[in-house]
Amino acid sequence: MFIFATIYLGYVYYTTHFVTPWHASSDQKGYNAVIINYSDEVLTAANEFNLPYTYLMSLIQLECSGIKPAGSRFEPHVFKRLKDVRDGRRKNYENVTAKHLSDATDEALKNLATSWGPFQLMGYKCILLDVKIKDIRGDNGVYHGAEWINRTYGNRLRKGEYKNCFHLHNTGKTYPKSGIPTTHDPQYVPRGLAGIKRFSKTEKKNTKR
Prior knowledge:
The strands form 2 sheets. Strands 1-4-5 form a 3-stranded antiparallel sheet. The protein has a two-stranded antiparallel ribbon with strand order 2-3. It starts with a helix and ends with a helix. It has about 210 residues and is mainly α. It has 11 helices and 5 strands; from the N terminus they run αααβαββααββααααα. It has a single domain, classed as Lysozyme (Orthogonal Bundle), CATH 1.10.530.10.
């Protein structure tokens, strides 16, 4: 029993701290797509909000694989919580209150409960930014995504807390003290950190323009 437990813990530690060969190969293939589709926009946003270019590029690779336009992902559990807020069964969901949702239809709530754009921001994040969902999923998705990141955890990024920031973006919480992430994909944080190193090469090229 002890041996199996040790093997299991070793497996968990490996998958949450090191990028597996399969993921490394997949990320390398998607690298060019991020460069081609988002590099210029990210550089502009990074300069405007004083955010690390390499982090933003790596995050885009994690969230949409560099695909443009980025896809979307509906989150049923978020829809339920927003519906509870609208219907008075819950006081708030993050910064969203019943006042924000008073005239929202179920279809509107579904849009708010869907992640959009290159950073896959949840639709309800547009309330904090005071923009429309079409803005975060449209041509200015990089700008609005970077603005949200700046407002939410920009100071941590400027301090170089990359592990915390990747975990925050995916779960809303900083990296656990236990050392085991709670991200949907256990490879999310190590892949993000590896991406920062990968995109540092293009950052140097961009600064020489």
